[in-house]
Amino acid sequence: MSDLAAARRRYVEAIGQREQISSARVLRAFATVPREHFAGDGPWRIRREAGLGYSSTADADPVHLYDDVLVAIDEQRKLDTGLPSLWAHFFDVLEIKAKERVVQVGCGLGYYSAILSRIVGAQGTVLAIDCDKALVSRAAANLRRYSNVEVIHGDGCRDVGGPADVIIVHAGFNHPHPLWIESLRRNGRLLVPLTKRGRVGTVIKVTRLARCYHAEAVRGIRIIPGKGRGRTALDERVTDWWERAAALAPLRFKSIELGLPSERKPRRI
Fold this sequence. Notes:
The radius of gyration is 18 Å and the shape is globular. The protein is built from seven helices and 14 strands.
C-alpha cells in the first residue's frame, strides 16, 4: 500500500502552486479531508481536464485520488467531482472565513461540502443542497461525521434556507438567480458559473455591498448545466450579455429583473 500521507502532502502542494492559493485555511482543508471517503469504490474512472475522455486507475489504491484529476460520479452523464485545483481557487477567491454560513447549490457526493466544513470551522455551517435524490443519499452518508453540514434534497433555486455569507453554485446557469443575491448578508459573496449549451462559460462572483451588488468575472469553466437552466435563444443571449459585460468591467446593480441587472430595488412579496 502506498504512503497516503505523502500523497496528500504532494496533492496539496501541487494545488497550491498551480493556482497560487493564498488562504492557509483552504489548503489545510484540502490536506485533512480524505478524498477516498467521497469517491465510491475503486478502481476509479478519472480524467485530467474537463472535455477529455475518462481512463481507469490501475487499481483501488486511494493514492490515485491524490492528483489534480476529475473523478467520475456518473460517466454517462459526464458528471464528476470537479477539478480540485479549480475549486480551491474559487474558495480562495471567495475569502471564506471561520463561523460563516455557506450554501452549496449542487453538492454531488459531498467532497467539497466536507472541505467547506473544515474552512468555516466548528462554529460555521454548510447547507449542501442537491436535486438528485440518489446523490443526496450518498452525500448524507459520506458527511455523517461532519456535524456542521446539513444535506438536503431540494431545489436551490427555490430555497436556500435563509440568509447566507457565501453561496456557491456547482452547476451552470444563464444568470445569477434573484433568490441567491437577495439571500446574501452584508458583504456576502455568490459564486455562479454562467454557461452556454455546450457547458462552457464564465464563473462570476457577486458581492453584496451597502447599497448595491458588485459582480465580476473570475475565470472560464466547463460544467454540467443546472436544473432549471433555460435553453431558449433568449436565455443564451442573457448569458452572453453577462459574460461580456462582466469581462469588460465590474458591474454594479440593485436587483435582477428578467435575468439582467436593474437599478430598481427588488420587490418584496
